[in-house]
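Lecture 7 notes: from sequence to structure.

We start with a single chain of 177 residues. Read the sequence below before looking at the structure.
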Amino acid sequence: MLDPVACQATSYRREVVQALVAERPTIIRGNASEILSLAGEASRGQGVDGRDPVAAAEEGARRLARSSGAVVAVTGEVDYVIDGERVVRIEGGSPFMPMNTALGCSLTCLCGAYAAVAEDAFDAAVAALAHFAVAGAKADEGASGPGSFAPRFLDALAAVAPEALSRAAIHDAAVPA
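Now the structure, written as tokens:
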């Protein structure tokens, strides 16, 4: 598992994360700005904040997945997961999610937990992202802002049942050549 936190922010961060990618992590999970930077493209991210849309990082994610051998998960409004062969988009969540500190780091931890018990890293990443999306959508239902969303999200995350994941908004997508 690799979460390239703010790798676009400084040359030191970029160099360290590139060295970690060379160690061949199973899953790389980041926001679009981080994935763009890892793929050698310009990003609009500032610090830990991703300012690029997921769609802008899809081509870079594809190249990164193929060159690193990792499953690459680009998270944002609609998540994008690719292993070089398979592609899935995951809808859901809440607009309050990016307003809460450490949700991206928490998602990376959940990806790691799923990867520890799954036979396939791609399936693990998709399931973890779907879990977060389902919990985010549920927590959003009664939230009036990011402060009330946070405890609702923790409760919803713990309450997600396996059946909810099978009904999650997961869409297969064609892999570009």
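Residues 121-140 form the longest helix (20 residues). Keep this in mind for problem set 3.
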